[in-house]
Amino acid sequence: MAGAVEAFQLAAASGDTRHSVPAALHLWILQSEVGDSRAVDEAYLLAVDVLAQKRAYEDMPVAQKSLGLGTHIACYQREFVQSARRALHRSVNSEDPVSVSLAAMGLAGLEMQDLEVTYGYADVSAAKAVIKRSLLRVIDSGLPDYVVVAAKWLASISEQTGDVDLARIALRAAMDSGNSEDACHAVSRVGRLFKREGQTEEAITAMRFVVENSQTGLARLASEDLGDLLTAQGDTEGARAAYHRARERER
């Protein structure tokens, strides 16, 4: 056991782009089968970091990198899919909120990509219940850096499936996580769904949040949507202010 751990650690740290990721995955799965939770987390984070370095996205939030590891396994390292799925489920059922959130993001990524590879499409409307459950586990953790990433994916799923109830969860989670651009992206998605489904008050809440917090083109689009919503409510003064703000954002 000790010899195998050391060998996999050396291979993972070697910088060999062909062998470092599989070695890190072997190390993580080996540690998971032994059951030492700290060693499991360390090995999983090593796999996350090795892949991030290989793909040159080290600056991404760790929650997004964890999801990326799951998608990578399902797409490029399919010999690990079953053992990785078992390892992720074990960590999701642990007591530590960080371990749960890390694993839940990885599991969501693995299952989403596995659907595409297995069935030939990436339509999240056909996503297994485990994907939604995994993202909701992350929301329940209350860890802002993880919650906002999960909210973005829940927002995407709800927008594509028309699931208004799921959109409400994503809206609240994104807004509670802070006022980052990631939060604004999630809120913008569910805001469009609310507008389309006639949920006017919730759409207004979402668009106001984006207008007030985004520093990108999302704010201009949200201002236009907010103007439309307020016009439909008969609030001409509020609508005029929203349209004016949209024009200001164009400059």
TrEMBL record:
The residues that cross the membrane are none
Where the record annotates domain Ancillary SecYEG translocon subunit/Cell division coordinator CpoB TPR, the positions are 146-248
Its protein name is Tetratricopeptide repeat protein
InterPro entries in the record, alphabetically?
Answer: SecYEG/CpoB_TPR (IPR018704), TPR-like_helical_dom_sf (IPR011990)
Source species: Nonomuraea typhae
Tell me one Pfam family matched here: TPR_21
